[in-house]
Every structure is written in C-alpha cells, then in structure tokens.
Write a structure and sequence with these properties.
This protein is of the alpha+beta class and about 130 residues long. It has 2 domains: about 60 residues, Roll (2,3-Dihydroxybiphenyl 1,2-Dioxygenase, domain 1), CATH 3.10.180; about 60 residues, 2,3-Dihydroxybiphenyl 1,2-Dioxygenase, domain 1 (Roll), CATH 3.10.180. It contains 3 helices and 9 strands; from the N terminus they run E-H-E-E-E-H-E-H-E-E-E-E. The protein is globular and about 45 Å long. The chain starts with 7 loop residues before the first strand and ends with a strand.
Length: about 130
Amino acid sequence: MPRQILTSVALLVPDYDSAIAFFCDVLGFTLTADIDQGTKRWVTVEPSGGGVSLVLARAVGARQIAAIGDQAGGRVWLFLQTDNFDRDFTKMRAAGLVFEEIPRDEPYGKVAVWRDPWGNRWDLIEPNLV
C-alpha cells in the first residue's frame, strides 16, 4: 500500500527576510532551507518540535498579494501545538502578537486564536493528555 506524508504547506508572505525573522526570531522556528533560485527563493521553516514545515512563498502579482493573510478566507487554518501554553502565550504577547481572545479550555486542550504579522489566523494549542 502506498505511503504518503504531508510535509509542507505554502504560506504567502510579502518578503522572505521579514518572514524568516518572524518565524525564527519570534516563534523559535528553525530555518531548514534558503535556496536562491534566481527570481525566487526556496525558503522553509519548521517548528522547534518538528512537524509540517512552512514554505515561505513571496507573493507575486496582484492576486497573490491580495491573498496574503487571507489564504483560508478568514478561518483559522494553522495550528501551532505547544507543550506549555502559558509559556508560549506570554512570550508571544510580549513580542506583540495579537490574540483575538483570552485562552479557553476546550475538551481537546487549552487554546487561543492569534494572528501573525500578515493577518493569518492561527490556534495556539496545548492538547490535553489522553
């Protein structure tokens, strides 16, 4: 039987370097690739605990530029799992990230919605141990 794995998700950003700085300096992601391809770069970042990487895709043209921060039509579409919600929530707020709500407890864990610098909506989640 074939085996498939989702390894990456593309995220439209206005600029490679500011996106790298945000993900690596603010969130603590690791820069896993930055390859010059002439007119564009292949840039990937990965959370410190591993998982799916983000391909930072510099938006080109009016359609892609208009989609920055709204790739999911206003829904939360990126989910950052943590082993310590309070630590990361405090660090992220101190870095100026905007949380749309106070943290809440759900059956699946502690969660709060936040926005990255471009307006994408994320969940910060510490799952309940089962």
